[in-house]
Amino acid sequence: MTIGLTHFLVLAAFLxxxxxxxxxxxxxxxxxxxxxxxxxxxxxVNLVAFNYYQHxxxxxxxxxxxxxxxxxxxxxxxxxxxxxLAIFLSFYNSFSTIDVERANEMREQG
Length: 110
Hints:
The chain has a single domain (5-109), classed as Orthogonal Bundle (Helix Hairpins). Helices cover 80% and strands 0% of the residues. The protein has helices at residues 5-25, 29-54, 65-95, 100-109.
């Protein structure tokens, strides 16, 4: 049995659904951030898999477009995580919680 493009697409779809469910069901801001990271990793799996199976280039000159885009997404995810964690830390210092539903209640009361 060989691993083909379909296997990678199923894996990416599973990661995407897990990330989406995490975003929708978690009340904790850190959990929501983890869901966003899962969605971005699903996109990375798709980019690298499509690059490998659809546009591999030649043996002497492989096309690395998918890998370059994946690295770009990883850099953006790291920057997004740093900014989000700074926002969460500031929010925690102000309200002593990172529960996103409690944040709405506090905004309405304040």
